[in-house]
Design brief:
19% helix; alpha+beta
């Protein structure tokens, strides 16, 4: 069973993805597009062209799991590729524009 939280790393794939892609197609994008193996337990996030759908691919020790969300209205915020935080993922899924958020300083372990 996979549960998301701040203990995982979240990678957004740059560009849009054909949402007809399934496990093997998304894993190929992780390997070829992000240069990662995909077997680390990290979460890989893919958006469609209109940013109305998101798929998240994660390895859970015995196989891949895909989480899929489709919006009935509105769109997700566009991101570049790379690592984002758990809080950024939550804001992305809730439709909050991250650039407009003011963050207060917090302790971060090196």
């Amino acid at each position: 069973m996979v549960s998301f939280g701040s203990n995982l790393r979240y990678y957004v794939y740059e560009g849009w993805v054909d949402m007809r892609k399934s496990f093997d197609g998304l894993h190929g994008l992780v390997v070829n597009g992000l240069g990662r193996t995909g077997l680390e337990g990290d979460v890989y996030i893919f958006l469609n062209r209109r940013r109305t759908q998101v798929k998240m691919l994660v390895w859970d020790r015995s196989g891949f799991v895909i989480y899929y969300k489709r919006l009935e209205r509105g769109s997700f915020e566009g991101y570049g590729s790379g690592l984002i935080s758990w809080s950024d993922l939550q804001m992305l899924l809730e439709g909050i524009k991250i650039e407009s958020v003011k963050r207060r300083r917090r302790y971060e372990r090196a």
